[in-house]
Design a protein that fits this description.
By secondary structure, this protein is α/β, with parallel strands linked by helices. Helix 4 crosses helix 5. It contains five helices and six strands, in the order ααβββαβαβαβ.
């Protein structure tokens, strides 16, 4: 029995649009896109990259690198060595340079300030792993261990606040009774 006009119309509406879309996409994008090269960190960019003028490696004084299990971490120490210790954790979109007004001011008030770039941001490496609260809390715990800091005040802005909360929950023995959250995002479970 031949198909009815309704069946023919239904079949046409199911088959023709996908064929037209596939033909269009293949004509507009005949070849797969070239893979995008992702730099491991700002430190791996060429010397003429604009980022060097915006966020130079010596943005703060007292900078250094440490190699941790997931890669190199860029950090800076400001203020007197015997000052009350405070860690400043940046958010998702802006690296440690977000603290450019706060960190030096705390240092002039006698605090020993630790500012660092989170994994995948700024000059710290971008490891091929899952980016979650545990990665960032372990990064901070290992950095504090490297610096031989037993305790510190923990302060975070945006996602850094979420990391500060998760760090306090996971490593309460490393927190000096104070956690400062600024426009915090949540990472607590």
């Amino acid at each position: 029995m031949p198909p009815s006009p309704f069946q023919f119309l239904t079949l046409s509406l199911l088959v023709i649009p996908p064929l037209l879309i596939a033909t269009y996409l293949l004509s507009v994008f005949p070849y797969p896109p070239e893979p995008v090269f992702v730099h491991k960190s700002l430190a791996s960019l060429p010397g003429d990259a604009k980022s060097w003028s915006i966020y130079p490696e010596d943005f703060y004084t007292g900078g250094a690198y440490v190699t941790l299990p997931y890669g190199r971490v860029r950090y800076w120490m400001l203020g007197p060595e015997r000052g009350h210790k405070i860690v400043l954790i940046h958010g998702l979109s802006i690296p440690a340079m977000i603290w450019k007004e706060v960190a030096p001011e705390l240092a002039t008030r006698g605090y020993r300030v630790l500012v660092y770039d989170l994994y995948g941001r700024g000059y710290s490496d971008a490891p091929q792993t899952t980016y979650d609260a545990q990665l960032y809390t372990i990064q901070l715990a290992l950095l504090m261990q490297h610096l031989q800091w037993e305790k510190a005040i923990i302060a975070g802005v945006s996602m850094g606040g979420g990391i500060a909360m998760a760090f306090t929950s996971q490593f309460p023995q490393l927190v000096d009774d104070k956690v400062v959250l600024i426009a915090s995002a949540g990472l607590m479970q």
